[in-house]
Amino acid sequence: MSRLQRPKGFGGVIALLVAALLLASCANSSPSKTSHSVASGGVASYALGAGDQFSWILPLENEANYENYNSNVSNGLYRPLYYVGGAGTTGINYPLSIGTAPIYSNGDKTVTIKLRHNYTWSDGQPVTTKDIKFFFQLEAAGAKNGDYAPYLPGRMPTDITSVSYQGSYQFTLHLNHAYNPVWFTGNQLTWIYPLPVQSWDKTCLTCRVGNVASTPSGATKVIDFLYKESGQLSTYATNPLWKNVDGPWELTGYNPTTYHAVFRANPHYTGAGKPKLAGYQIYSFTSATAELDALRSGVVDFGYLPTSDLQLSNYFKTHGYSIKPWKVFYDNIAELGYTGPYRQLVDQLYLRQALQHLVNEPLYLKTTLHGFGMLDYGSAPIYAGSNYVSPQLHHDPYPYSVAAARKLLTSHGWRLSASGPSTCVNPGTGSNQCGAGIKKGAPLTISMMYATPSASLAAQAQAFATAAHAAGITIKLNPQLQSTMYSTAGVCPPGPCNWGIALYGAQEDFGQYVLVPTAGVEFAKGNYWGGGYYNPTEQHLLNAAYDLPGLSRLYQVENYQSKQVAGLWWTVGDYAIAVVNKHLTGWNPLNPYANYMPSRWSLNG
Question: The whole model's pTM is what?
Fold first, then answer.
């Protein structure tokens, strides 16, 4: 999954008269303060986090645009087969889904899915299994070509041997072996989007729609064409491809320079969760300061307050805004470099345990995040009410203790030093020795990259390094821009990890594509985010979570990863501190997958 980056801002209200003009245009205007109106439902707006832009409309993401803020917009235009999350709830939202609950049979090797009959496209044609078939044709081509971002080897569509169709509203998946229905529903079926075959099954804008995608080579040409068109931001508001939707919204205006997007309620929408607003808008900002300015001036209704600007809370409260922490369901892991110069150190379980004892999560939450966050002791955070979190993950297996860390080191052959790096004095692989590959006299020094310019993350990294020094571990801090970290730590594996610890500040987000938090993307064999971690026992448990029924298998792999310290578990900061205009209602409780769900919103007063 993509890395979830915490936004920086939100707020204000747009007049219906101005909005009507915007809805009829390409919305090339820049943000400006307008008055409030509630006629015809009104038009509300929200801000994306600083630096984020809605810039991918096709509900088949490529790697460059695989971000939750894109998929959250596209699934308002194109309803997924299974919609995830609701008002403060994790899991699949069946009332908002086109598919009814899947039926598993044949020892969980067959999945039968029925479509609701009440969904239609803007052109009046019903959403049927022909649109599902078209999705599978394009997905197979994208997975083969390496274009389709959610695909991992062995996963959909390669875990499906065939698909059969029983009329217009039922289809059956025949799987290559039995899968855990909890995992398969949450982490495979949530990928499926019915796609408008009557509009998209062609290879150019002026080409006639045919049966092009029915062959693998044709499907490749079709998805290449759609990817190309989705990259043409300047045509978003006018391209006929994006006019035929089955979701509650349709795009009517888009500025490719400012990324300002304008949507109106789809007058042809026939599904559940009909919008209460006449429309909504999205604003993008290059900085948190610009977002705050728009928030104060009333350009946006739903904005963000950075933790560095908490002193403004009273201002917004006295000016009619609500302030609410937005807790989202994602984990935060400091990756460990299991290949490269520090591999002999991080390969040692006792050392990973010692390092975890030095992560003072309650302190970080209280002092650096001002209480806006969650504790995280494994591959899922302690999100209240979610049954995807093992009961064991509610307790810290390695609570903060410099003394405990020192004891682990001295009992494994290290001579601790306060003036310089501690050294290994008892090399070897015995239970009281330093471990495989660690030579006598080797220093206990580890480099740590962390993302800037977050002041809270920098404070956490410094506190961790200070605690490590007290325990006898030298941490060489290496602050880097997030983009630099992606290009450095993000290329390991397959390349060597020339770093010891990498802390991004936000890790995998769970949502439309990864609902069940097994951390397979991070810690499964062949992973590309876990620093090269591989453990045969953990892989066995992970496979069981994939293949055997029930939540207990998920809990087993979560518990094992937590105790093994596959990565350093770290405090999860809230996605945002939401600042919302008093006239906007229906936004709370907030969706745990960072989806604004504007269809729930309404304006009053």
Answer: 0.89
